[in-house]
User: What shape does this take?
Amino acid sequence: MVNHFRGIKALTFDVFGTVVDWRGSIIAECKSWEKTRLLDVNWEKFADEWRSEYGPSMNLVRNGEIPWTKLDDLHMSSLIKLLKRHKITNLSNAEIEYLNKIWHRLNPWPDTLIGLSKLKTKFTIATLSNGNISLLTNMAKWGNLPWDCILSAELSGHYKKDPEAYLKAAELLSLERHEIMMVAAHKDDLSAANHLGMKTCFVPRPLEHGSNKKIDSSPENWIDICASDFIDLASQLGCH
Assistant: This one.
């Protein structure tokens, strides 16, 4: 396995769900607000609904219905809709802004820091996320994520799974596409990278959407590596 991937020089990582637990982080922080803000909300449902706005909001950009808009602003538009839907009316503008930036404060999965640190000894490790650069930078500081560099869809003005997002990453890393392995918990992200000639690693995260929702964790013949977590990935790639 290691010899087969000797030509890989960099690993690029999807972040939301792959590197960090967005759902658990949002639910935990929002629950901490309940007593001080006198809120009675089903935060599991709230988190799921917020995330469900993610794809449709980016599609507005992809389809040219709205100009390039960074993810923080798309998240805010979705949040305003959710606050109305859940009849949350007692938050100040400053509190709403702070709540929106909960996406900057997402916690890593338990294996993330150890796995990334091992992978960093042998490869350049970078984000390749739809998150804007300020969001990803703040998240890295929050979770002590040891990235070599932060790459974002914002740099290409195209959201994944548009080809431009992946091509810009290769250009900025000054690497050929086959020298980069895309790491993600989502097959559609990996499929887009694979079609452009990047190597792929699938790391399923069974708890991304909660314990009651099953995910497709089966391998595919076009996926180069399937790993149970980042520590397993590091082992498969010879990082000790």
